[in-house]
Write a structure and sequence with these properties.
The complex is a heterodimer.
Chain A lengths: L20 E8 L9 E8 L4 E5 L6 H8 L7 E6 L2 E2 L5 H6 L1 E5 L10 H11 L4 H14 L4 H4 L9 H12 L6 E5 L7 H18 L2 E6 L2 H7 L2 E6 L3 E6 L1 H6 L4 H7 L3 H4 L15 E3 L5 H10 L5 E4 L5 E3 L3 H6 L13 E3 L4 H11 L3 E5 L5 E6 H16 L8 E2 L8
Parallel strand pairs in A: 3-8, 3-9, 6-7, 7-8, 11-12, 14-15
Antiparallel strand pairs in A: 1-2, 1-4, 2-17, 4-5, 9-10, 12-13, 15-16
Chain B lengths: L1 H6 L1 H33 L3 H14 L4 H12 L3 H25 L3 H9 L4 H34 L9 H9 L6 H30 L7
Classes of the chains: A alpha/beta, B mainly alpha.
Chain lengths: 408, 213
Amino acid sequence: MSDTATALPQGDESQITGKSIRLEGVTKRYPGQTTPAVDGVTLEIPAGQVVMLVGPSGCGKTTTLKMINRLIEPTDGRIVLGDEDVTDIDGDQLRRRIGYVIQAGGLFPHMTVAQNIAIVPKMLGWDAQRIEERTTELLDLVSLDPDTYRDRYPKELSGGQQQRVGVARALAADPPVLLMDEPFGAVDPITRQRLQDELIRIQHELRKTIVIVTHDFDEAVKLGDWIVIFREGAQIVQYDTPERILAEPADEFVESFIGSGAGLKQLNLRRVRDVELREAVTARPGEAAADVLARVEQAKHGHAVILDERDRPIGWPSRRQLSRLTTLADAVDETTPIVGQDATLNDALDEMLVSSAGAAIVTGRRGVFVGVITVEVVMEAIRAVRDAAGDDIGGAPVGTNAEVTQDG
Amino acid sequence: MGEFLAGRFNEIAFASVQHLSLVAQSLVIATVIGVGVAALVYRNQAASSLANGVTAIGLTIPSFALIGLMVAPLGFGVTPAVVVVVFYAVLPILRNAVVGLAGVDPGVVESARGIGMSRFRTFWRVELPIAWPVILSGVRISGQMVMGVAAVAAFVLGPGLGGLIFQGLSRMGGAGSIESIVTAVVGVILLALVLDLVLVAIGRLTTPRGIRV
């Protein structure tokens, strides 16, 4: 199956480790306030999918999220996790089964990274060895070297690293559901983009049910399988796939929320790994430039990709540059435009524009060269997204504020 | 002076140990009370203000007057001495504990609750350790302060170096009266320094590396 934001619960469902969540007429009324903060939300969150709750500040999206794990107790309504009604069970017990990540990670400053991660497993009574193994596994999962970071304290980590540990801690006891409240709000844009890509990769491996609150619509488009758009009082305006929200916003409120450049935003929906890449002439350092130039001309390409001994691209000389060289150097050219397979087409296009080559080199696992992406490929993908968005999709989950009548 | 010290060495040493013991034990009791009361009030703005008001007023009560008032209900000896020393020791600890607990990052508390730690566990494992350095600095202030208060305890025949001061004062002008007072005062100062060093050491040992400044 494709692993883009268009992923519907088709394909191999056995890999899904998440559980579905159902909110039934969930309401939160604070004493002394005339209008409820959250008004009768009924929302189906399909298992193994990423659902983004977006809306202006104060619209009740965070309250809705916190009612899923009952950090905020609903005034009214039911919460169903999988097949189990969890509205009345012990809140602490419930929360141990649901991962929770907040902005900046919310790590405990007086505990090491390993101690932070071990908290939930300890409460669940795991033995020391199992906790130790799990910690190593999780640090690997969030791309932090276990030996380097295990015994560090949060203040010795960067903001992005703290956020990664926060995710590792939330996943410690392998909960089926992960709730994230503005998880990437406190980091710089470059780190944010990296953490988002990382989350997509982790989700690709784990297939949890993830609910993320954000006020950043671009983030919602990038990460979400589904997007819920709220307005004040947690009124659901639209609950749909990112493609369809971009193509057919329900009303003016959604349009204004999407902002300008809806067409460009569609580039966030496609990942480099989803499009067909172009081949390239490859060469090794030490080869004669003239030979390589001959191969490039024969293939009617403009550039040759120089790979190091582990097949990672280190340079991308043009024909003109090749004609001036005698042998290929093994120095790494920092200006080479490189994007990972998990990058969005938007990121790829950005890289191309900066490099002015009209193309970028694509790398896969461990930075190994896999192909070249060009502007033409991106254009084709945009056309495909537009066409696909028109198609109606069956089996869309329910999301309303209306009273629902259900059997049982 | 040397003669005075040599002649009464045993008595002075005994009084010093008694004095330090009174202060140390009172500090332990005061820390438990101070942190306990702070735990009850720190979430509530009004209760916190009340606690701060009480500590501010409490510190203005002259210790000599308070210990005199304790004689009627508690009689003479160790009991009124401990009560008064604990009373004064609680005040800075309570104030610092409220400040320390209220200063814990709400995000940290929220994530503790969010991953399923109970209210009590969150307090014990997260909030208290994070607030601990601030609480401990309150304990140090208390330690310095009640060293002097403990000397007044001799007025109710309590233990410690205060006895030497009262002896000296009552025989003012007599042989060895000045020596007696000076010995007690210097002794109190030295004990205060020793106690502070001990508290600093305890602070080093009990503060996790992650929140040491």
